[in-house]
């Protein structure tokens, strides 16, 4: 088999795994009450985006338009500017990046600025953010229609000037890759420093009451770290999957040669599309709340699977940092909640 055939097979496998894995994530979050937190709402949106991306990846690679587009202008528009340009698939890819940025922001505010969390992340604002992710992705990638043109009923890539090519390459590289990467890196570094500072206040005490408080603080930090580690792995995976393709596209738009039939290009494309199916695997391996939710969901079908968890529930904890002597403790009932 040649490289193109192998790539097509891998894309189909990735698409099937992505459809299955992201469906499981959506079902667990939707069906298990303890999973219905704001953090998981963003994870749910990520899974929906990646599910649709996986589905359209299979369709895009197996449903080809005929060499000559339709004589009907409306049908020709759909064939060339929508399907051939892969605008729908790229809308999902960009939405996935934007949603990851919002998810990182939610964790950043919850951990670094816990007392301001409800100001920015109540249900109404969270819903508005989720809708904004979709709207921005759709509006931004609509420019793909200008990259193609129809000549003699044939859909071809537009012959762009050097200046236009450089401009498009630079904007794409900055918006779809570099700016989100720098922003999320800053957030995670700041979060890690904040958690290290908070962990220094959690230590064993001889007093029973102090031991109880430190035990609760330790559980809070462990749960918070588990969520953070999971999302950090998601971020690192995103970086690995997107870096080769974005750098290749950026260099190509500046006139450097790129072999579209070469191994590097095929691998870079596979990595981008791999990002649509890898997150559910990360949740299954690292996200303890998702693991518990999956056990709850499967328990009626497999009673022995979660027998040792019969007396356990998925606890709900505040995302705030344990207050020190220099901070007044807010009313716990008014604080945002995060499940570990």
List the helices and strands and how they pair.
Blueprint (H helix, E strand, L loop, with lengths): L2 H29 L6 H25 L10 H12 L2 H26 L4 H4 L2 H19 L6 E4 L2 E4 L4 H38 L8 H46 L9 H24 L1 H11 L42
Antiparallel strand pairs: 1-2
Helix pairs in contact: 1-2, 1-9, 1-10, 2-4, 2-9, 4-6, 4-7, 4-8, 7-8, 8-9
Mean pLDDT: 80
The CATH C-level class name: Mainly Alpha
Could you name the CATH homologous superfamily? Rhodopsin 7-helix transmembrane proteins
Shape descriptor reads globular
> Could you name the CATH topology?
Rhopdopsin 7-helix transmembrane proteins
Query: Which CATH architecture is right?
Result: Up-down Bundle
- Strand order in space, largest sheet: 1-2
Rg on CA atoms, Å: 23 Å
Class from secondary-structure proportions: mainly alpha
Order of helices and strands: HHHHHHEEHHHH
Portion of residues in beta strands equals under 5%
Ends apart, CA distance between termini? 46 Å
Q: Number of domains in the coordinates? A: 1
Number of strands: 2
Oligomer: single chain
Subcellular location: Membrane
Transmembrane segments: 6-30, 42-61, 81-105, 126-143, 163-189, 231-252, 264-285
Keywords: G-protein coupled receptor, Membrane, Receptor, Transducer, Transmembrane, Transmembrane helix
Family: Belongs to the G-protein coupled receptor 1 family.
